[in-house]
Amino acid sequence: MKTIMVIADGLGGRPDDTPEGTCLEVANTPTLDSLVDRGTAGLMHPIKPGVRPGSDTAHLSLFGYDPEKYYTGRGVFEAAGIGMDLGKNDVSFRTNFATVDSDGKISDRRAGRISDGQEELEEALSELTSKKYPDVEVRFKTSTEHRGALSISGEDLGGNVTPTDPHELGVPIPQAKGLDEESIKTAEVLNEVTDQAREILESAPINVKRRKEGKLPANAILSRGAAKYPDVPSVEEVYGVSASVVAAGALYIGVAKVVGMDYIPVDGATGTVDSKIINKAKAAIRELEGGKDVVFVHMKGTDNASHDHNAEAKVKFIEKIDETFAWLDDNIDWNETHLSFSGDHTTPIRYGDHVAEPVPVMIVGPNVKTDQVEMFDEYTAMHGGLGTFSGQLLPITLSYSDQLKKFGA
Questions:
Q1: Rg of the Cα trace of the chain?
Q2: Residue 159: which domain range?
Q3: pLDDT (tens place) for every residue of the chain, 409 residues total
Q4: CA atoms within 13 A of residue 105's CA, in its CB half-sphere
Q5: Of 95, 96, 94, 98, whose CA–CA distance to 220 is shortest?
Q6: Are residues 300 and 307 in contact, defined by beta-carbon separation less than 8 angstroms?
Q7: Which of 216, 239, 233, 203 is closest to 145 using CA atoms?
């Protein structure tokens, strides 16, 4: 059988999201309601009760991996997600292009959300190197807008390093510190690289141009999220399945790639509320028809709207998801496919960030025993046949598809 796991980022909400209740309650979702009526529902703690999940740790847990065992930091997922080849000797960082004033103080952590010229800056930073440790390789790659990733590769490098991004303005870029003996070398290289980047970017032609145009120069890089490449088995090794990921955000692509999923790019997928998520659905079906056992589909817009405290946008995106599921419903081979749908965490509109409350979940397919739930939202899911459980959504779905390896004799 085949499996599709769809995650709407930040799907869950709280009763005060709107005057009428949560965004899921308010949204018009005839297809989601029809699917849950044919399937089973429940509530899922993305990691475990009382743990406020990050998107990276939550996805590891949903894939069936214990984040307390395998999570090394976010940097490796961001770097892998934007296409950097990484290995066990790499320490990776998330980066921002930033603006530093003439006094060496940070005036903008995002360089005015720079939207052009990043490739030129990336090329300039290809010169980055460590003079103190010539055996160490340094690589930099841009992502979207001000975002990027930095990789430091060499023997005996630790990933327990403090950030050079202070998350505040009007202060100098802080020196990185290694928090254990193995990480001292990494911190020294990062400080070298940070200083070099300042010198290289200060005189880069694109920044000369930006100043003339009255724009903020991208004359520094700030780094955070230091992470060693995790020693994690692939989904094929753990479950015996082949898998693909259909997503737009680098973090989600990166987590999936690290656990051995093949990334499938999709036209019009932006990772925002305007994303053409119907193209993600079509890509998922193509992957299954092409022989993949599992496809993981990630949709980001629900979380973006939640972080922006925008209930109207979240409701509209949920309705957009419902329309996409209508196409899926018509095109899935329901005789041999199981589909699970949930969120990676709850992101209430008023609070605007991740919280520890569970998220609603459904599974539908030919082997599912139906329950009495007829609508899909946080309240009705409480009464579903899946009950309340923690993480493990992928292996639970694989079990329905008869794709799960047996534990024991």
A1: 22
A2: 79-228
A3: 999 999 999 999 999 999 999 999 999 999 999 999 999 999 999 999 999 999 999 999 999 999 999 999 889 999 999 999 998 899 999 999 999 999 999 999 999 888 888 899 999 999 999 999 999 999 999 988 888 999 999 988 999 999 999 999 999 999 999 999 989 999 999 999 999 999 999 989 999 999 999 999 999 999 999 999 999 999 999 999 999 999 998 899 999 999 999 999 999 888 888 889 999 999 999 999 999 999 999 999 999 999 999 999 999 999 999 999 999 999 999 999 999 999 999 999 999 999 999 999 999 999 999 999 999 999 999 999 999 999 999 999 999 999 998 888 8
A4: 6
A5: 98
A6: no
A7: 216
Query: 13 and 98 in one domain?
Result: no
CATH of the domain at 269: 3.40.720.10
With tokens 């200060």, the residue in question is: 202
Residues 204 and 241 in one domain: no
> Given its phi and psi angles, is residue 304 left (phi above 0), alpha (psi -120 to 50 degrees) or beta?
alpha
Give which of 299, 287, 290 is closest to 324, Cα–Cα: 299
Only one residue has tokens 């990043």, namely 118
Give the C-alpha separation, 44 to 254, whole Å.
23
166 vs 220: CA distance, rounded Å: 13
Does 408 fall in a domain? Answer: no
Show the DSSP H helices in 205-310 as ranges: 205-212, 235-239, 250-258, 277-289, 301-307
C-alpha 351, offset from chain centre = 20
Length of the chain: 409
